[in-house]
């Protein structure tokens, strides 16, 4: 089968076209003909950082985590899928799990679900990593009807799903953005937009919560921005983040009695830990999407498998809006 491989990691790493063996189905897995994949920040990190990240595959590396496609073969012990099923999932591209920048993948059936019927393959392929992340973060933060929720980075991959899920679960949602295009998308998704470059945390907390703070802060920016999340959170509030590889002063979190939830959705793949939970989340997300609760925002550009270098560059540029997808 055709695949795009990385022979050597680094800032100038390039994908190369290769012919590799088509994988064989095994017990508890499904063989999927991939029709689309998508690019996530972690993919670009692996490509450039290599061995600096403990989750990077050995080279030559077959990257790519998200996919949507059609089941071609079912392994022993698989009861929930049949040949011809259209599925989506996040099941490879790290450690010893071959990725999705290829024509086929053998995926653990616990990491897969039936694709939402109302989505195109390329739309479904954009979702698994970011949607599972948003779902897990909000659920762990105890999302509930009537809460005031702040989403940092609401025009990004994770953020645009977090806005919609928070609204679906009955919250009053606010979100930060740094430019008019981002703010416009945030408004389209149903959240009150906050221009973080022109409004201070203190100003927007006062404006939107009367100074009390937000019940839940979902921070898809993370790092140093977590200090803004602590400042924006209510007393005994909940903060969920996707980026916490940093050193921070937790004084504000202490005196507010905040709970911090770190979401690292790759754990089930890396450690074979509670993988079925990802399948369950994807199944529930499909139901929510089919009800109209979440729509997918895709970047305007189209990329073929051979153009994956350009797809990575698009995501890294920060100029894209929504998820960058690679069509097979």
TrEMBL record:
Record bears the keyword NAD: no
Keywords for the protein's UniProt record, in alphabetical order: Cytoplasm, NADP, RNA-binding
Domain Enoyl reductase (ER): 10-326
Source superkingdom: Bacteria
Organism: Rubritalea spongiae
Self-association state and partner proteins as the record states: Homotetramer.
Major location (coarse): cytoplasm
Record's protein name: Zinc-dependent alcohol dehydrogenase family protein
Keyword Iron: no
Subcellular location: Cytoplasm
Record Pfam families: ADH_N, ADH_zinc_N_2
């Amino acid at each position: 089968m055709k695949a795009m491989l990385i022979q050597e990691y680094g800032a100038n790493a390039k994908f190369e076209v290769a012919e590799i063996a088509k994988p064989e189905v095994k017990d508890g897995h499904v063989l999927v003909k991939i029709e689309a994949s998508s690019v996530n920040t972690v993919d670009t990190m692996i490509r450039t950082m290599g061995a600096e990240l403990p989750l990077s595959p050995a080279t030559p590396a077959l990257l790519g985590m998200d996919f949507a496609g059609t089941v071609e073969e079912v392994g022993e012990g698989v009861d929930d899928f049949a040949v011809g099923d259209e599925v989506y999932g996040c099941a490879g591209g790290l450690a010893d799990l071959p990725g999705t920048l290829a024509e086929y993948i053998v995926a653990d059936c616990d990491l897969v679900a039936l694709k939402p019927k109302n989505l195109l393959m390329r739309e479904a392929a954009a979702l698994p990593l970011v949607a599972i992340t948003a779902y897990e973060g909000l659920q762990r933060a105890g999302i509930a009807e009537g809460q005031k929720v702040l989403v940092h980075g609401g025009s990004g991959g994770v953020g645009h799903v977090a806005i919609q899920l928070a609204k679906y679960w009955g919250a009053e949602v606010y979100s930060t953005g740094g430019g008019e295009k981002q703010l416009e998308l945030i408004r389209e998704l149903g959240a009150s937009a906050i221009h973080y470059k022109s409004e201070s945390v203190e100003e927007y907390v006062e404006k939107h919560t009367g100074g009390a703070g937000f019940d839940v802060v979902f921070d898809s920016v993370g790092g140093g921005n977590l200090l803004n999340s602590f400042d924006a959170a209510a007393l005994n509030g909940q903060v969920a983040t996707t980026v916490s590889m940093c050193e921070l002063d937790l004084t504000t979190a202490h005196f507010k009695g905040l709970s911090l939830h770190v979401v690292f959705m790759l754990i089930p793949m890396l450690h074979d830990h509670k993988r079925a939970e990802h399948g369950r989340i994807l199944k529930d997300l499909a139901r929510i999407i089919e009800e109209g609760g979440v729509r997918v925002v895709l970047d305007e550009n189209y990329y073929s498998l051979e153009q994956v270098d350009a797809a990575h560059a698009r995501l890294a540029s920060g100029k894209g809006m929504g998820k960058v997808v690679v069509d097979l």
